[in-house]
Request: fold
Amino acid sequence: MVRQYLQLGQRTLAYLDSDPTATDAPVVILAHAFPLGAQMWEPQFKGAFQGWRLLAPDLRGFGGSTDERPEDVEPSIDDYADDIASLIREVVKAPVVLGGLSMGGYAAFAVMRRTPALVRALVLADTRASADSLEGRAARKAMLTLLEREGPQGVAREMMAKLLGPTTREQNPDAEETVRRLIKRHSPNGIRDAILRMMERPDAAPFLPSITIPTLVLVGDEDVLTPPAESEAIAAAVPNASLVRIAGAGHLSNLERPQAFEASIDDFLAGLSRS
Ligand code: MLT
Reply:
């Protein structure tokens, strides 16, 4: 795994690359959840998806990716979609399999809305298609206040119980510390702008029937942040979708049950290669 940097005008987009020399290999791009970063995919960089090159960007404002924008420009989920599109155009130069977990899924929907020709297949993990409800928006505002008062540490504390499922917390007590470490490395500004981007994102539900590429929907069966019913609704509305539930995983299914997560994607990728 190599950390790489792509210069986009004044901005830097940092990303992890399983093998920068594998320029002929088909590519999987994975977009991270809130408020983590590309490093949440470290388990997958330990040899998952044989024959495929894996890329994972730090979305704008996270980790090593900068986010200079004029003060009068509002942050939008489309910014993340454009980061992913830039990575595909500048580094991969061919359509990719695009996966996103939770907020990464919101970014993937935005890519499908803006630049669908760049994607040949989709993996939507522990995410939802609908926009924030009124209660959801109120919770985002409360989190902005908490962030201002206590920084990323406060956000980590607030979210922890919802990010990991009960099975993981019982069987792998170290997982909490791993997730806390993954959250604390991000800047308050990056986290604030991510909250604003998620809060203002459009409803992707009406758009789902127009997604015709092969789509894998994954969800931890103990996910309380984006519960299995959300994934069932996505899989029912996307014409060419299949749904896999990951037993014993909460919201961060790739970290909690990496082998089951990767096996589901391996099966999906093998199906693509055959078609
Ligand atoms: C995430 O995991 O990306 C977030 O929980 C998504 C959200 O807050 O809507």
Summary: Strands lie at 2-8, 11-17, 27-31, 53-57, 96-101, 119-125, 215-220, 241-246. The pocket of D-malate is lined by residues 33-34, 102-103, 198, 225, 251 (CB under 6 Å). The mean pLDDT is 96. Residues 1 and 39 are 11 Å apart (CA to CA).
